[in-house]
């Protein structure tokens, strides 16, 4: 890959607040709010505790977002968490956090979305299940091709899909609030004994539905005035999703009784849509979920390759010269995007993406935990310096975020120790790659080494 005049080609800094906000909301809201209602209610044991679970998960996520927002305002560079880990703890920690995200976690999440989207499309159009894998790969590649263009198109697509997915969500909320005839509070599931209701596990289920809020930080080098807009997008985006999730759950509990939600499982919301709006309503909801997943996929495809690009710019990966290439017209990291799509396609063909993404949850939250501690380190390191954004209620907010991450980490160890140990293998595999790339980088001349992007 030739890099003619690459020094003059920069990422386009044209993502505004609405685009960034749409990416936060769109990347968080996939299928979780539609399919996890029964799972959360089953663990919580009652509608009251179910609502509190969604609220608690949202508050924990908000504390995490507010904590990272302060770091993002100080380090608003392309790469997000990868950059934060490197600047706070050193190069190898940044590399390992980035390595885990670009090799396994990100591709597995995108592949899972692609496969679930294929299942919905097959059900909607009556395709045979044997078509699921080709449909999934086609969908992933189509969204990937969109992101080979200027980030302006990915941003516009994020706004459109976010608006579209909010329409069926609003319909569900309005129907439940104004036409539901059940009490949203106080209902218990008679088939589930109180002893089996686990509030902590219910919160854990909602936390996974809130995951993805941090990915907009990967676009720090492409956001207008990132020191100001990044914290705003993260904060307002999480608040919006929190309100949506609680209102959807409240509407569902109003629409049908708790026992019926339990019996219907993942079909609870489709049943409500069909019951409320007829067969057409069920179809519209299916389209809404499909659009929701496509929008979520777009956000992840837009953001994860930026980590690979940022690592390549620092010559931390094999073939860094190619992976750090920006197209001279679209100013998109096209090679990193293509490589990420190839990894995703391989996972769809030969692996279980759901299982891989579950395995990496533990590692992701370990890096989250370190990042939350990082806000204390930066404050001590930068004593006396002014900040564009400061975490509200400091130090209580980051402490709650830290406790939330510890809760997820301990829960993962208790429920899936083999998976936790396996996730370490993925991280450890990055260590020899790091030292190989560093040794190769040592042989480069000063002119061949890229310089970190300047931040206005």
TrEMBL record:
Task: Tell where it localizes.
Answer: Membrane
Keywords annotated in UniProt: Membrane, Transmembrane, Transmembrane helix
Name by which UniProt lists this protein? Amino acid transport protein
Q: Where does the chain cross the membrane?
A: 15-39, 51-72, 93-119, 131-149, 156-179, 199-221, 233-256, 330-350, 356-378, 390-411, 417-437
Annotated PANTHER family:
AMINO ACID TRANSPORTER, SOBREMESA, ISOFORM B
Give me the Gene Ontology terms describing cellular component: membrane
Q: Which InterPro entries match?
A: AA/rel_permease1, AminoAcid_Transporter
Q: Does the keyword Transmembrane apply?
A: yes
Q: Which Pfam families match?
A: AA_permease_2
Q: Which GO terms describe its molecular function?
A: L-amino acid transmembrane transporter activity
Q: How does it sit in the membrane?
A: Multi-pass membrane protein
Is Electron transport tagged as a keyword?
A: no
